[in-house]
Amino acid sequence: MDFDNLKKQYLASSLLMRLIYINIAVFVVLRLAGIVSFLATGTSNALLQWVEMPSSLPLLLRRPWTIITYMFSHYGVLHILFNMLWLYWLGRIFLEFFMPRQLGGLYVLGGLAGAALYVAAYNLLPHLASSQAMMLGASASVMAIVIAVAVYRPDYQINLLFIGGISLKWVAIVTVFIDLIGIEGGNLGGHVAHIGGMLMGLWFGLEIRRGHDITSWINRCIDAVVSLFKGNKPQAWRPIKGKSPKSSKPKNDTKATGTKGQQSTSLNEERLDEILGKLKRSGYGALSDEEKEFLFNASRKR
Q: I need a labelling partner for 230 at 20 to 30 A (CA). Which of 115, 125, 191, 209 fits?
């Protein structure tokens, strides 16, 4: 399979699968770089220091990009295996209720929350202040998605091997409990980062039930960055839909066009009122994909 086919498969895949592909690709590059480094010099992988996030604030200020790269990087086989399985299983459930953009936004926010709590712990807790550590992995991001969907639909049933049907709320409770009792173990920083991601997922779940989407601002930032890399002006503040080719009618039809525009605006307002009423009565999960898309575009216009 050549690079062009891989690129086509990536572009045709869902956002969930793109996140998994990115994590796997970075893992492969890091492991190959580690093998080359070991065979050439007998030393550890020098590439790791450029993607893993340091707990030291001075070092972090010199490598600010690591606050993003760490959440897409793994080096242990079991580490990436379990994280990607969790992301795939719970990500699919998440997408039953929310849009792919919200999944991507929460993934990044969960990673940022985990990074913030991790750095705070190593710089504020007395027994950690004298030590330095490095962190990598998508665990905080994945935990944010797990807790978010469990908070939003706590009674959603999933089937686990050897256990059978179980509610998401119990999956979340056990996950939180395991991380809390693991704080006394050897991976304190990792468990602290997990808790940061969980808190972000809890915030998302509670806010979305009130009709507020905390991922909207981070998605606007991502849109702006992507547009800059593509060489285009940022499109985050414009509605995606509603564009139409220029009319070939004479200019003296302005009045009629304006009337149609007013009618269209009135219909859109009525449609928005209907969707907001349904959202208030039944919650976000009751909306269809088309209604979610309409609500998302309307919020961007405003």
A: 115
